[in-house]
Specification:
alpha+beta, extended, 5 helices, allosteric enzyme, two-stranded antiparallel sheet, PFKA, 6-phosphofructokinase activity
Length: about 130
Amino acid sequence: MSNRGDSVGCEVGGARRSSVCGSVLIGDGGRLIDPTYMIRAIPSNASDNIYCTLLAHGAVHGAMAGYTGFTVGPVNSKQAYIPIARVTERPKTVELTGRMWARLLASTNQPSFIASDQEIVDIEMMKI
């Protein structure tokens, strides 16, 4: 019961559930899985912490200066305010055979699921 005397409860499937003594049962609200826990499988290292601190400081300074609609990031080795419209104006692609992707896989200890050049050649030979 609320302070005004109204019945308070959780309706499940259109009908209220109640216990043997008549008390209204509140159903399970579900579980919250925070997506940030799914992003990294390994703990952050010192350089990650420093980089995140720099980004956070830049974002706070920009917000306190009155800027809106921006993000913070490195441009020519300097921290810069970047308009969100500029960041999202065209999609950025990642070359899965490039050096930056290899660095990401190495730093996060993830396996590469890309077939090697020899496997690609073998697959092409099987098609003939």
